[in-house]
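Cross-posting from the chemistry board since nobody answered there.

I work mostly on the small-molecule side, so proteins are not my area. We synthesized zinc ion and want a rough idea of how it might sit in this target. Sequence and SMILES are below. Is it possible to get a predicted 3D structure of the two together?
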Amino acid sequence: MLKSTFLLLFVSWASANVHERLQLLQVYPQTDEERFYLEQLKNEHDVWYSSEDRYDVLLTSSNINWLLSSLQKRGIASAIVNDDLDRDIKEEFERLSKNELFFDYDDFNNLTSIYQEMDKIAAKCIPGFVCAVDIIGTSVEKQPIKRLKISKNVANRKVIWLDATTHAREWLTTATTFKIMKHLQDKYKVDPTVTSMLDKYDWHIIPVVNPDGYIYTWKGSRLWRKNRSINSKPTCPGVDLNRNADSAWGAVGASADPCSETYRGPSVASEPETQALQKHIKSLGSNIIEFISLHAYGNYWLIPFGHLDDATKKCYVAPDAAETLRVADAAANAIEKVFNTKWKRGPSCNTIYPNSGGMIDYAKAKAGVKYTTVPEVRGNGFIVPPAQIEPSFKEIWAGIVASIGAIEKKPFLDIIQELKSQ
Ligand SMILES: *[C@@H]1O[C@H](CO)[C@@H](O)[C@H](O)[C@H]1NC(C)=O
Ligand SMILES: *[C@@H]1O[C@H](CO)[C@@H](O)[C@H](O)[C@H]1NC(C)=O
Ligand SMILES: [Zn+2]
């Protein structure tokens, strides 16, 4: 009897372990009180997405039950939308490991392959243009941070700055930048929109802002967000590179706890990646017509600012807020027309949540770039099927073209038709 009870316990313990897996829970708050409760989860959990009516929380199968019962007690609705992320991650790696030889524009690629492809693009530069790959900085683990420049080598041409994967796990953003590079390369003098986007502007594209983090996600920690810096808690490495920049650093919406996913770093711009970006953004300054930093996920076209007004403790409103919102509206409206998706737009502080140390706020407040944005690409998580790459490209391209059109007050009217007919 004793023996069989022991066996039973052992079997259930073992099977609980075998089935221990990552799960994604969506929670749907309706009142401010419920939202307040869910905000507290951000201290202890990896909250992937949060908006007024939805929070996505990553949990393990062994700790999901306490939260489910706590939500039930409070009458907050929720649903497990992915019951086995480990399975998805495994399938993704299996698929990718078969991709042995080539850079694949319709799938995700490792950093080595990404840097090789940037060199290849530069080597076959569009006739009449100058392409170069330069190293704008070096990460903590001594990886180069590479930028592709497509330019005319004419002084003071306006620059479109496009970067991706500041947060390591946001792979779809990097894949989207490659589709944009390819579109620019293949469609010059073929597609009139591409022709004018190249004839009028230089492009500076950084597909991976956080190379250490990106490599780390390819080595098995697929859901890593931060960089890889060692900090005061050796068990919790990494800094959130989008909370580390010199704009309202250390204020709301960034954590002082190294174990948090939104750890701001030990001091302002402590990270070499942050320093590299700030230096190059500042040196280009107002020559940047639009600063675009892709993130994932949630269908947002976010603009500054993230922080609160010191006096009112409400979201800070910039003097040109109406003008930058007009441009964000143009972008989000254009994107919505491509696939009939919904895109929220506006200052990050009131559109998502108050935050500080973000790079688009730095670019605007400290480097003099008038129009800066974080588009949060499509998806319901970080592990997305490769079939999402092409639609993500179409949406982001539509948003970029429409926003540049709005900035110039000369909309590219037929962009949507062109994209639909491709
Ligand atoms: C990176 O991907 C390429 C294929 O694109 C592959 O040949 C190479 O072995 C990979 N490198 C590493 C370090 O995994
Ligand atoms: C990550 O952040 C730490 C600071 O905590 C920094 O020292 C390190 O260089 C960063 N890693 C990368 C890859 O930038
Ligand atoms: Zn991000």
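Reply from a structural biologist on the board:
Welcome over. Reading the output above for you: Confidence is low (pLDDT under 50) at residues 1-16. Residues 2-94 form a domain with the Alpha-Beta Plaits fold (CATH 3.30.70.340). Happy to explain the token format if needed.
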